[in-house]
Design goal:
By secondary structure, the protein is α+β, with helices and mostly antiparallel strands. It contains four helices and four strands. A four-stranded mixed β-sheet has the order 1-2-3-4, with helices on both faces. The longest helix has 24 residues. It binds zinc ion (ZN).
């Protein structure tokens, strides 16, 4: 795991944390507008499903989570830094996030859903993202 100094002051860090919790993050918007352009129909943040998936494609029995690389610990990703201060706090937080993600995934798969994880950094490569979504969902004929 990468060890990086926390580049934010505490105030800035809380601001960043708040921004991360917003429902409509830019990476999410990028995935949604791409799906829309490709002609897929989807719903957002459907209540009643484990983990309240960001995007739900009922016809494909597929849910998509658009994960922030930092919070959800994208493996080998430069965005998944570890703040140097309050090391224990962050380690606990990260392992809770990872455990919750794994549990949610199991619950959804047990209920017959296919779970697709799109990482924040992957939304910056539209062509690759499009290929990935199309190969996961198949042609929308
Ligand atoms: Zn990443």
């Amino acid at each position: 795991m990468l060890q990086m100094p926390d580049i934010y002051t505490p105030a800035k860090r809380s601001e960043v944390m708040r921004a991360v919790r917003r429902l409509d993050t830019p990476p999410e918007k990028r995935v949604r507008s791409l799906l829309h352009r490709l002609g897929f129909r989807f719903r957002l943040h459907r209540e009643g499903l484990p983990g309240r998936p960001d995007i739900v494609l009922p016809r494909f029995r597929t849910v998509i989570f658009v994960h922030g690389c930092f919070w959800h610990r994208h493996r080998n990703c430069r965005k998944a830094t570890t703040p140097a201060s309050r090391h224990e706090f962050w380690m606990t937080k990260f392992s809770q996030n990872r455990r919750r993600d794994a549990r949610v995934r199991r619950q959804l798969e047990d209920a017959g859903w296919r779970v697709l994880i799109v990482w924040e950094c992957q939304t910056l490569h539209p062509a690759r993202l499009q290929n990935r979504l199309l190969s996961a969902l198949g042609p929308n004929a």
